[in-house]
Amino acid sequence: MRITQGCFSFLPDLTDEQISRQVQYCLENGWAVNIEFTDDPHPRNNFWEMWGLPMFDLRDAAGVMMELNQCRKVYGDRYIRLSAFDSSHGWESVRLSFIVNRPKEEPGFRLERHEVAGRNIRYTTKSYAADRPEGRRYG
Amino acid sequence: MDMDTADMTDTVNLREELEAVGIEEILTQLDRELIGLAPVKTRIREIASLLLIERIRKRLNLTSEVPTLHMSFTGNPGTGKTTVALRIASILHRLGFVRRGQVVSVTRDELVGQYIGHTAPKTKEVLKKAMGGVLFIDEAYYLHRPDNERDYGQEAIEILLQVMESQREDLVVILAGYGDRMDKFFASNPGFRSRIAHHIDFPDYSEPELLAIAELMLGDMNYKFSADAREAFIRYIALRKTQPLFSNARSIRNALDRMRLRQANRLVADLDRVLTADDIMSLEASDVLASRVFLKDRSTVRSAEQARDR
Ligand SMILES: Nc1ncnc2c1ncn2[C@@H]1O[C@H](COP(=O)(O)OP(=O)(O)OP(=O)(O)O)[C@@H](O)[C@H]1O
Ligand SMILES: [Mg+2]
User: Fold this and answer.
1) Which CATH number does the domain housing residue B135 bear?
2) How many structural domains are present in chain B?
3) Does residue B182 have its Cβ closer than 6 Å to ligand 1?
4) SS3 call for B139
5) For residues B248 and B239, what is the distance between their CA atoms, to the nearest angstrom?
6) Interface list for chain B against chain A, based on CB atoms closer than 8 Å
7) Which CATH architecture does the domain made up of A16-106 adopt?
8) What CA–CA distance (Å, rounded) separates B244 from B88?
9) For B196-232, how does the pLDDT look when each residue is reduced to its tens digit (9 = 90+)?
């Protein structure tokens, strides 16, 4: 099941050229670009790991693409996303975030139903990938 | 190579091309604002012409190669290397050979780390900031420490060499430093030598050029020499040039700063005097002659360090 999170995720995967144009847009707005990766794509997982530090003071997207390619070499079998942080007063938050790499096979989620008191149902989504230990979740 | 070559009847109007990119302005500004440096200016014009033609060839599909633009600037301290690097960046930017045109200026300290695993991230941090522009590495030979083969500088060198080769369209590297030491550095790092397309040598300034530089600097700051002060400064230059740690235009700038200080002291010493704008703008002979450079008795003038600061 193809995961849809962040911007552009209903579109076909962006090419590197398109990623680079988006990054340039972020840099020109003065946003710091971050690279994050995870093997647990649950939508409530806020704790993606960072690849290196946030990238401040870059002028050109080539710098970000260089890091992204290095991250793909190491974690190419996982989800990688870029996020752009706007530190200006009043915003101080992420302005744009999109997936730039995904595993070949995305096993998707199952929905678990718990019957609780009064025959009410509580729902939980679980990622199939996360059933396996860390580092062996994809491939 | 398989490319559809240009229609041979296509015509190119060079003047229009040149005007469209606006480098002529930069070149004339370079002529006007930088004194002397004739060989440097000629080389820059040559490079600019080459790149203009290269740009047209690319448009006509006569080439698809990215030209190597990495350069080395050699010359003594204060001969204008950093200043020229900034101009080159804007020329490259106008011609579209770098996308943004910023100059990131670094020395060994910004590239090389203190412990294992520290260097690569540091070097890459700098490279990322320089992408799309020019990376200017001052005193590049400090990257290489021949006496210590496990020096972390080597790691920075390898990363630089790789990026200089594989990301030629993303950034231009300029290595700068003093002539003889750069020669040694290139001799022991042939990788750099072969990746550099343009070697530019910055000559020392002649005495009249140093005077012209001084007057240019003063003019920019709205100061001027009185006739006597100018004479004194000509003597100052001749003496200062023979002393240790002379660094061309930078020594001139420093000397002017000290003369402005003396002038201010002189003016403030007489509080009852009524000053004209001309008085406030003028440096007098006494402001120049108070310099230690004029001290006859050398034996009392101490270490080279002090000599430089006076
Ligand atoms: N030809 C010139 N005309 C006018 N000003 C000059 C000229 N050359 C240098 N200067 C001035 O002299 C100062 C020193 O120049 P710059 O920093 O470019 O020298 P440098 O060669 O980089 O020196 P270093 O090797 O010590 O770093 C600057 O303030 C610059 O503006
Ligand atoms: Mg310099």
Assistant:
1) 3.40.50.300
2) 2
3) no
4) coil
5) 13
6) 99-100, 102, 121, 124, 127-129, 131-133, 167, 170-171
7) 2-Layer Sandwich (3.30)
8) 31
9) 999 999 999 999 999 999 999 999 999 999 999 999 9
